[in-house]
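Holo model, 2-(butylsulfanyl)adenosine. Inputs:
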Amino acid sequence: MSEQEAKKRIEQLTHELQQHNYNYYVLANPTITDYDFDQLLKELELLEKQYPQFKLPDSPTLRVGGDITKSFKTVKHRYPMMSLSNSYSEEEIRDFIHRVTKAVGTDVEFVCELKYDGVAISLTYENGLLVQAVTRGDGVRGDDVTNNIKTIKSIPLRLRGDYPEELEVRGEIFMPHKGFNRLNSEREEIGEAPFANPRNATAGSIKMQDPKEVAKRPLDCIIYYVPQDLPGITTHYDAIKYVGSLGIKTSNNIALCRKEEDIFEFINDWNVGREHLPYDIDGIVIKVNSLLLQKELGYTAKSPRWAIAYKFKAERVETVLLSIDYQVGRTGAVTPVANLRPVQLAGTVVKRASLHNADIIAQLDVRVGDTVFVEKGGEIIPKIVAVNFEKRPVNALPVRFIENCPQCGTPLVRKEGEAAFYCPNEDSCPPQIKGKLEHFISRKAMNIDSLGEGKIEMLFDNGLVKNVADLYYLTYDQLLGLEKIIPAEENKKEKKISFKEKTVQNILKGIENSLAVPFPRVLYALGIRYVGETVAKKLTARFTSIDQLQQASYDELISVDEIGEKIAESVIEWFKKPEHIEIIERLKAKGVQMEITETAAPVSDVLQGKSFVVSGVFERHSRNEIKALIEQYGGKNVGSISSKTNYVLAGANMGPAKKEKAEKLGVPIISEEEFEKMIDIV
Ligand code: IVH
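Output:
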């Protein structure tokens, strides 16, 4: 392919993929299969690698996330980002309508919209290209989160149609329920605390430093406001339709209302209809449609006088707390669960509610026998929000959180700064062992699909496996004929399962096949707390064998990008236990992959004995590449600057505190170029 042909093909693919993204994410009407889309994207990626000079600024390949952001730049909003005044009653809405009508002296047309429950964002387009995305911050200044926002596929990187030279639009970023629930179960799988609700998950996601991680978060965005004047446009409704015509995702659930009653109809319809939306809304926004009237009405210090939010009351019922169960998870965290007198709430019968942890129980001052208020938000599990103290039985006693594990009797512990109590008996507490085994065999870990939850339970209950290494020592004879009796239930007879020849062969084959699983996934499968898929990849990129990882010091661990104190401590603690070392040895003996096979061997020892602190963003290498180079040339990466550090290798945006410390201790600060000269790769 000639250069000219490559340029043309890149342009064509960029254009075509953009159209498919728009069809899929904005119109929800794809015209191509996911597979074909991925093929085109791969072709574009390859061409862009070969001919980086032709990569376009709005390339769909940017959606996977670019460089790491160390700290977000603060940016002043061109137009302040105001909030809305809230109301909770029909009366307040009537007051608002009358106030507005009186002030302008004529009948007023209103627009009713959904109030999305997420995080507000302001997007700026210049000559049709997305150039900046800023959070609300304090309303005057916000954080520049452009790199992260570019990964959200419903936000166009380039506008279509007849766009103005400069355009600013505002909207809400949110996480639909399906993606939220998936994200939370993945987090729970690796021992991370789940997000309390989709809004928190959204806020956490858009402030992450690695856009590649943001790209994995299922975020969406709807635009509901244009702060600037647009030629020929005189109403809010038309402004929204106009930006919609530029390829921006706006809401279809929007209504023009001339009569008060139309507004209430919209509110009441959505108060019920929101149950079926795939994302959370927390109310309705009512806006004056005419932009001229909006200007006339103006603003208070905090919010426009031309708009108001009606907030839905969460559906809430009263019931009785019958008892509290304590569940032990894979990581040993003990969660109190309330057993409730069954009650109808938002279309389902609620029997149980999460009580989260001991602090929440204390805060609510909830006692067994109490009449409690239960609410259901966007989350699946309802929660107890308050106690009706008037109905408290005289003999109700404060809850005493259990002190011993309900499964194995071990005294519970609470780590500093954490809300949950843990059972520390991680290697012999039954639900923890079973949980670890289930995690080990799961698809993203060792992918032993011939085993599942039920079979793991049978192996464990029969004393055949007590840890993940035992799986590799199972024999045909041990498994054949293994039985489990499922007790009779309502309308169902007692059932007996027993392992036959075929099942046993399948199980053993599945286990054997897992010997091919590469080291990063094996590390993830071990279930070390906080070591999820991504962390496992990052760790194994630097420490290419389990032995290297075991020997890594705290400083070395935290010098890896994205590896913080919490992870480093957890890894070190894990390797301290002789039981774990034994598991590793037994897995190794059976041939489980414990190192990365095709790693770069040391190239030279010019940096022998030299320690480096790497900071900032570099032009020609990613930070991890730089760190790998340091090691390949015999040097050592350390996490923090001390008088023993030989060099601080600084890129752009190096933190001022680091710079000051290096200068104070007299540690030389070198640039990427100087470093390249040192190892002679320029
Ligand atoms: S209009 C100047 N419309 O609610 C007013 N806001 O509590 C601009 N929100 O900060 C905002 N849905 O984050 C508007 N349809 C909608 C909205 C909406 C959600 C959020 C927004 C705002 C907050 C105010």
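The pocket of 2-(butylsulfanyl)adenosine is lined by residues 82-84, 113, 115-116, 120, 172, 224-225, 285, 304, 307, 309 (CB under 6 Å). Residues 430-516 form a domain with the DNA polymerase; domain 1 fold (CATH 1.10.150.20).
Archived with the compound record.
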